[in-house]
Design brief:
With about 325 residues, the chain is an alpha/beta fold. About 40% of the residues lie in helices and about 20% in strands. The structure holds adenosine-5'-diphosphate (ADP).
Length: about 325
């Protein structure tokens, strides 16, 4: 459980808006529900903006009532839809978006999304003076300033279910599997899944893939009587096809490996209890911080406490993957 912030409510808000942007993540719906109900309970109107910044820049938004967010707490995806909107990178378009919000009497905006979406939120807050609060909504958990992001736990749980099944076949057929999980620039899913799934090895961005040393390790494992089955978890990396290329390279070293790409199943599905609780606490806190007069911040969680982090730091700094955890995956396999 998280401890919620206790803030003095300095500002009277008439209306706020909420949107989801970038890659969808399980838990966005409970976050929307929480933002909407926290605001409505405080007598604040809430607009739901359709399709992230794409809807914002054309004013595609409608007032939500309590019933609008009924029966979504358990649903994956986002009832508000999500999109990528290149036009929002243009300052003139952001100015237009701020004008639309002001025309509707909106005093504050909650943006739920990943690194890119939070960058847009930061620029909008900085340039327009509008009160903007971000929530970390991404399966990748690669957001600076928060220990956890909405969707990460569900994605890890989904990937683990798949890996447990793949292991049955790997054992039965004495085969090596390369299982690719999401993570273009980050290895958080791969590390968590590798640890929880008892992977032989994990390969994550930022660490050079050395085929010779992988083969050496596999040979050592076999010599130690570990059999010829196994799971290597591979983070997808920035360029598609990494895992197939790795299988090819292993083949040229006489190592046969089957490839399984988990892909988008990791983004969908009913959010876990953990993600629902996280999203609910973050959504409520976003409204509390807006009511206390804060802007240009992200609400995250650090050491079990809900906290606020300047969006400037969030978007300009990267969250490091603890190398000790990568080592731990390998150590626990020996
Ligand atoms: P995510 O939020 O999941 O990281 P993206 O990186 O695709 O997803 O970003 C989502 C959206 O956020 C983009 O389509 C764009 O509308 C907005 N965005 C991303 N980067 C910027 C930026 N540098 N300036 C303004 N808006 C941005």
């Amino acid at each position: 459980m998280y401890s919620l912030p206790k803030l003095t409510r300095d500002v009277s808000l008439n209306a706020i808006a909420v949107l989801t942007s970038g890659g969808d993540a399980p838990g966005m719906n409970p976050a929307i529900r929480s933002v909407a109900r926290a605001a409505l309970n405080a007598g604040i109107e809430v607009y739901g903006v359709q399709r992230g910044y794409s809807g914002l820049i054309i004013g595609d938004m409608a007032l939500l009532d309590s019933a609008s967010v009924s029966n979504i707490v358990q649903r994956g995806g986002t009832m508000l839809k999500s999109d990528r909107c290149d036009a929002f990178r243009d300052p003139a378009v952001r100015k237009q978006a701020a004008a639309i919000l002001r025309e509707r009497g909106v005093d504050g905006l909650v943006v739920i999304g990943g690194d890119g979406s939070l960058t847009g939120a930061h620029l909008l807050a900085e340039e327009s003076g509008l009160a903007v609060v971000g929530l970390p909504g991404t399966i990748d958990n690669d957001i600076f300033g928060t220990d956890d992001t909405i969707g990460f736990d569900t994605a890890v749980t989904t990937a683990l279910e798949a890996i447990d099944k793949i292991r049955d076949t790997a054992l039965s057929h004495e085969q090596l599997f390369l299982v690719e999980v999401m993570g273009r620039n980050s290895g958080f899913i791969a590390t968590q899944v590798g640890l929880a799934g008892g992977a032989e090895m994990i390969l994550v961005p930022g660490y050079e893939i050395q085929v010779e040393s992988i083969c050496f390790q596999l040979a050592a494992d076999r010599a130690a009587g570990k059999g010829s089955s196994g799971i290597i978890v591979v983070a997808e990396g920035p360029t598609p096809g990494l895992t197939y290329r790795l299988a090819e390279r292993l083949r040229s070293h006489d190592q046969t490996a089957k490839v399984c790409i988990l892909g988008h199943i990791q983004r969908g599905g009913s959010p876990t209890g953990h993600d629902r609780v996280l999203a609910s606490c973050l959504g409520f806190s976003a409204v509390e911080y807006l009511r206390a007069g804060y802007s240009d911040i992200m609400i995250g969680v650090q050491n079990g406490q809900i906290c606020q982090v300047p969006l400037e730091d969030v978007v300009n700094r990267s969250k490091p993957l603890d190398p000790a955890l990568v080592d731990l995956v390998h150590l626990l396999h020996r």
